Amino acid sequence: MEIIVNSIFVEDQDKALEFYSETLGFVKKHDVPTGEHRWITLVSPSDQDGTELVLEPNEHPAAKEYQQRLFADGIPVTMFGVQDIYEEHKRLQDKGVNFTVEPTKMGEVTVAVFDDTCGNLIQIIQM
Description:
One of its GO terms (molecular function) is dioxygenase activity. It comes from Sediminibacillus halophilus. The chain is an alpha/beta fold. The chain has one domain (5-126): 2,3-Dihydroxybiphenyl 1,2-Dioxygenase, domain 1 (Roll). 26% of the residues lie in helices and 41% in strands. The protein has helices at residues 13-23, 61-72, 85-94, and strands spanning 5-10, 27-34, 37-43, 52-57, 78-81, 99-106, 109-115, 121-126.
């Protein structure tokens, strides 16, 4: 068994697609109309056959509440690995990304957290 898809709730699919592709650098793999919304997935540019990230509309009341509560409590919804967290932090800050937690060493890893502008906090980690 392997993980092939992971979803993240977003307030606006177009805004999320722009942020996750143009700002973060993920590659759009699928963008398929599904009625009112779209099936949008992105992949890492270094592993385009790897796990896909789905930009899932948060229209269901439970999804919206889940997303809002995690954000309010400062809890990231997912984690992305980076090779050099300080370099990535600077690159993203230069693109206007707002960090809620600056790079912080925690034992064997260093983490940082930013606002994805789509209703979520995202953590990046350097192992």
